[in-house]
Amino acid sequence: MNSARGLARSLYARVEHLLHEIAKFGVVGAIAFIVDVGTFNLLRNGVMEDKPLTAKVVSTVLATTVAFAGNRQWTFKHRERSNVRREYVLFFGLNGVALLIALACLGVSHYLLNFTSPLADNISANIVGMALGTLFRFWSYRKFVFTAPVTRDTPADEPEPLAA
C-alpha cells in the first residue's frame, strides 16, 4: 500500500507542473471561448448573418487577443520570455492555424453538408473545430511561443563564472 502511494506521489511530482499549466490554460481558454462564441453569435445573428466565416474570423481575432494576454501573464509566466513582438506574432500565427482548423470544420458542415442553421454552425465551429484547435494550441504554445525555462548546469551553491 505504501509503495503504491509512493509511486502515485512520484508520478504526480513528475507531471504536477504540466497539470498546473493545463488547468491555467483551461481557465484562459474558457474566458477566450466565451468571448469567441459570444462575438460569433452576435455577429452571426446580426450584421454578418449571411457571412458565418467572416464572423468566425472576427470573433477568433478578438478571443486570441484575450488569450494571448492571459497565457503570457498567467499560464506560461514561469517560462522563458523572448521579445513580446515575437511571441505575439507566433501566438497569432499559431492561432491562425487553429482558426483554419475551425474554419475547415465550419466550411465542410455549412457548405458541403448543407447544415446551415445557427445550431449547426455553432456545433461545427465552436465545438468540433474549437476542440481540435485547442489541442493544437496547447501543444504549439508550449513548443514554439512560451518555451521551457532554461535549466542551469551550475549547482545553486556555486557562483556563476564571470564573463571575460
How is the secondary structure organized here?
Blueprint: H1 2-44, H2 52-75, H3 84-112, H4 118-145
Helix pairs in contact: 1-2, 1-4, 2-3, 3-4
Please characterize this protein's 3D structure.
The chain is an all-alpha fold and 164 residues long. It is built from four helices and no strands. It has helices at residues 2-44, 52-75, 84-112, 118-145. 26% of the residues are buried.
Task: Give a quick summary of the entry.
By secondary structure, this protein is mostly helical. It has helices at residues 2-44, 52-75, 84-112, 118-145.
The sequence of SSEs as H and E is: HHHH
Structural classification: mainly alpha
Number of strands: 0
Assembly type of the shown chains? single chain
Report the portion of residues in β strands. under 5%
Number of helices: 4
Biggest β-sheet strands, sense, barrel: none
Distance between the termini: 55 Å
- Residues in helix, %: over 70%
The stretches of 5 or more residues where confidence is low (pLDDT under 50) are 154-164
Q: Which word captures the global form?
A: globular
Task: Spell out the key features of this protein.
mainly alpha, 164 residues, 0% strand, 76% helix
